[in-house]
Amino acid sequence: MRLTVGQAIVRFLAAQWSERDGVEQRFFAGCFGIFGHGNVAGVGQALLEAQRTGGPELPYYMARNEQAMVHASVGFARMKDRLQTFACTSSIGPGATNMVTGAALATINRIPVLLLPGDIFATRAADPVLQQLEDPRSSDVSVNDAFKPVSRYWDRINRPEQLPSALLAAMRVLTDPAETGAVTLALPQDVQAEAYDWPEELFARRVWHVPRPVPEPAELERAVEALRGAERPLIVAGGGVTYSDAADDLLAFADATGIPVAETQAGKGSVPWDHPCAVGGVGATGTPAANALAREADVVLGVGTRYSDFTTASRTVFAHPDVRFVNLNVARFDAVKHSAVPLVADARAGLRALTEALAGHRVDAAYAERVRRLAEDWARVVDRAYHCGHRPLPAQTEILGALNEIAGPRDVVVNAAGSMPGDLQMLWRARDPRQYHIEYGYSCMGYEIAGGLGIKMADPGREVFVLVGDGSYLMMAQEIVTAVSEGIKLTIVLVQNHGFASIGALSESLGSQRFGTSYRYRDPETGLLDGELLPVDLAANAASLGADVLRATTVEEFRTALERAKEAKVTTVVHVETDPLAPAPDSDAWWDVPVAEVSALESTRKARADYEAAKAAQRHHLGGNAAPTE
Ligand SMILES: Cc1ncc(C[n+]2csc(CCOP(=O)(O)OP(=O)(O)O)c2C)c(N)n1
Ligand SMILES: [Mg+2]
Known about the structure:
Elements: E1 2-4, H1 5-14, E2 16-20, E3 23-26, E4 28-33, H2 43-52, E5 60-62, H3 66-79, E6 85-90, H4 94-97, H5 100-108, E7 113-119, E8 153-156, H6 163-174, E9 182-188, H7 189-193, E10 195-197, E11 206-209, H8 217-228, E12 233-237, H9 239-243, H10 247-257, E13 261-263, E14 278-281, H11 288-296, E15 299-303, H12 309-312, E16 324-329, H13 332-335, E17 341-344, H14 347-357, H15 365-386, H16 396-406, E18 412-415, H17 420-427, E19 436-438, H18 447-458, E20 464-469, H19 470-475, H20 479-486, E21 491-496, H21 501-509, H22 538-544, E22 548-552, H23 555-567, E23 572-577, H24 602-615
Parallel strand pairs: 2-11, 4-5, 4-6, 6-7, 7-9, 8-9, 12-13, 12-15, 13-14, 15-16, 16-17, 18-19, 18-20, 20-21, 21-23, 22-23
Antiparallel strand pairs: 1-10, 2-3
The structure holds thiamine diphosphate (TPP) and magnesium ion (MG).
């Protein structure tokens, strides 16, 4: 079949399907793109031809920023449990490198996305082409080499003959739950337009079976033995629970054993917040209930978690001197962390095996009672934070409370960076595994609106509430325009606090006096950015991008606006100003952010002393076997 490389790629992508549990779906729901000379006549022409001729099904969506289109793809793929995603086509140069941040985000969060950046001429006929990086050491380098460390598979298609094996390798990685992340196929702009005689079989319908690997018997036995011996076990539920669609299986396991369940940012919502075993988020921004249990736990069962520093409170929260880890993970890389007893398996398959093997085993009644009391005490703190009546401006915790009470159980809350992820992990009462969508692998300012777009595309039946701080909004609000043009409805809650509440508080706690963290005029006297507030109106900005806008100044007005936004048919922004200094509950856990060891500032010296004291609790979990097995 004689086609260009661009046409062959489109035809191939449209023929890829994934299957898990007997359900098949197209693997690529479409292709996001922004055209430039590096793709307009190659992949761009192929997408047009497919659309015009009723050819391969790969609908094109135009984004407004290349980073954002990768975020949208990630939001989509996460909602689809990684069984479906998008391809992203960009021009060469800046269009391509704009996607590097998105690639890192996808790879760190273990979410599949296929990136097709345009690249410099393979023939080098017109070198240097507009936007070409000329590396004096080698002509075989382009800006797309920057994708290598952030891609799980990377290739450059310099000849058409290379394409079939590269496409198959890309699909292998994208559909492998242990390997998945960003895949980059760099496409020189001349090669995209070049024709070749392809074997027909390349374009045959291809189903990629997404496996549910079962535990190896000896590994299962060791894991069961460790859990049976535990007096104070704790489950740490990560994103793998949701991606494996294993929330029901986790519930069954917790019900059967009575083991409490703490959650990471990606795993939050695995169990409903009011389940008897639920103790909420764990770690630096976790609940004091979960963190108390983490400190006492003698066995930690991690399920689908990568144990980020937020989860472990920078390796201080699992404080029992003999704590052991049992890690159920589809990737051995994660399963062996903290010298764990590894249980390499799909989360669902592993939980089912554990439930069966531990039949009849339960935690003792006193421990279950302690779990219940800790959770009850914490619920009262959340109630107060949701309704604290802070004046004159509302506290952020009240905004989150109002949203929690107004959102339906299946509605999705989206966030990524700033002070909200921490408050949300601590305070959000999740009722559905897909309700809580906080991107905290890369915690990327700018994910919120773009990610929300992808989430809504994945599940139009759910209301999507995008929470975005003023800082994140300023970085990337432009996908509002995409949402408007595609008729995709988002509700965006824009929390205006004139700067970085998060980093401001962090800075203060580290003796750095909130330096450079609020949006203000430069004060001529101090020379610092601590003058008057700026006359910036982000609500007007949102309206200028085509959104409907509602402004709220009190919690009551916010509730009314949110109800209206929820009913609206079009993308609506609710703008609310909050007090960045309002109190929020404490997690009773630490986060390692190093403080200057020497300083002329008293505030820094004091913070350094606190830092050293806290750091003393940090530990390696090196495990090791206590005795020979004979
Ligand atoms: C792209 C990016 N740049 C920088 C950071 C570091 N950072 C984390 S939170 C934050 C401030 C966020 O401000 P805003 O969105 O207004 O949220 P707030 O802290 O006020 O809640 C910054 C700069 C980041 N996470 N992502
Ligand atoms: Mg802010």
